Amino acid sequence: MTSRKNDNSNFFGQRIRHLRKKKKILLRQMATELQVDTALVSKLETGERKAQKQQLPIIAKFLQTEENDLTILWLADKIQEAVAQELLADKAIAFITKERKKENAV
Questions:
Q1: Which pLDDT band, with edges at 50, 70 and 90, does 42 fall under?
Q2: What is the DSSP code string of 10-68?
Q3: What mean pLDDT, rounded, does the chain reach?
Q4: What is the DSSP letter of 9?
Q5: Please, are residues 63 and 33 in contact by the beta-carbon 8 Å criterion?
Q6: Which of 8, 33, 3, 10 is nearest to 20 (CA)?
Q7: CB within 10 Å: which end of the chain, N or C, has fewer?
Q8: How far is the C-alpha of 29 from the C-alpha of 32, rounded, in Å?
Q9: CA–CA separation, 90 and 61 (whole Å)
Q10: pLDDT, tens digit, 9 for 90 and up, residues 56-76
Q11: What would the mean pLDDT of 67-86 be, rounded to a whole number?
């Protein structure tokens, strides 16, 4: 498993770390809430591991933040990872955005 620390695509992990520290919550407290070990929470924050989608509501509730906000960042990380090395990534994302707007307009 490769680390994503240096590619600036760890939006989700950076946000949950910020919220956790702001609320003075220890890694072990968050780990207990998620029913995982402390090392895993640390890896979620650094981007070395990804949260599972079903963990997002638990994390959001524990950190007293909007689930949709965390979901957006979680999805952004997935998209960034999928297209990080693609030269035409921005055009592909723009195309998808345009198509989704058409679908939603119907």
A1: very high
A2: -HHHHHHHHHHHHTT--HHHHHHHHTS-HHHHHHHHHTSS---GGGHHHHHHHHTS-HH
A3: 91
A4: -
A5: no
A6: 33
A7: C
A8: 5
A9: 33
A10: 999 999 999 999 999 999 999
A11: 95
